[in-house]
């Protein structure tokens, strides 16, 4: 299996983390999206949307979209709750992450880290929506150890990717004690060093 990914992308790292945790063998192929490497004819044949991560399986099939990939790779593992309702709650958080979290937390980080913008140049609406996402996470984690119950699931992997580096996008995690506790526990579970 080949993972085409950008190691600076949280969406790509999710796939790597799941493979590493579950000991799924893979070959990582580094893709530089800013150099147009997702726009080559070879890449577009694998993924017409021209996005990473993209996984190419040995039988020629490909799969895109980080949460779809980790959902597939994590099937029948400890990362998906056995209880059907708990698994559905995990999916609820996976969908929410891509719609209500990543477009704000990750985009603000991209603008600061990769485009050199200052925090004062960020779209105030994106910042507001990013903090709204963090507020919702904090509220949930104040009464639940992880996102789909008392064990790490794919929901935690997905949300961890950009939350652990939210400060790089100008977000102050100082007031989020439950999120900081959760980041540490999820990083330890996945064998990750603490985010800088």
UniProtKB/TrEMBL annotation:
- Residue ranges constituting the GST N-terminal domain according to the UniProt record: 1-81
Say yes or no: keyword Transferase present.
Answer: yes
Source species of the chain: Bradyrhizobium huanghuaihaiense
Q: Which InterPro entries match?
A: Glutathione-S-Trfase_C-like, Glutathione-S-Trfase_C_sf, Glutathione_S-Trfase, Glutathione_S-Trfase_N, Thioredoxin-like_sf
Q: Which protein are we looking at?
A: Glutathione S-transferase
Its quaternary organisation is: Homodimer.
Its domain of life reads Bacteria
What Gene Ontology molecular function terms does this protein carry? glutathione transferase activity
Q: Which GO terms describe its biological process?
A: glutathione metabolic process
């Amino acid at each position: 299996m080949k993972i085409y990914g950008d190691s600076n992308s949280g969406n790509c790292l999710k796939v790597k983390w799941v493979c590493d945790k579950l000991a799924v063998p893979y070959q990582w192929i580094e893709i530089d999206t800013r150099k147009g490497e997702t726009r080559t004819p070879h890449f577009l044949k694998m993924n017409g949307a021209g996005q990473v991560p993209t996984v190419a399986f040995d039988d020629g099939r490909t799969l895109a979209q980080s949460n779809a990939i980790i959902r597939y790779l994590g099937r029948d593992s400890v990362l998906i709750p056995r209880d059907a309702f708990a698994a559905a709650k995990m999916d609820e958080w996976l969908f929410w992450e891509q719609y209500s979290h990543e477009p704000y937390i990750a985009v603000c980080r991209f603008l600061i880290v990769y485009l050199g913008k200052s925090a004062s140049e960020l779209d105030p609406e994106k910042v507001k929506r990013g903090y709204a996402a963090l507020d919702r996470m904090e509220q949930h984690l104040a009464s639940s150890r992880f996102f789909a119950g008392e064990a790490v699931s794919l929901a935690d992997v997905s949300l961890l990717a950009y939350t652990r580096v939210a400060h790089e996008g100008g977000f102050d995690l100082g007031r989020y004690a439950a999120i900081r506790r959760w980041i540490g526990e999820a990083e330890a579970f996945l064998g990750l060093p603490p985010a800088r």
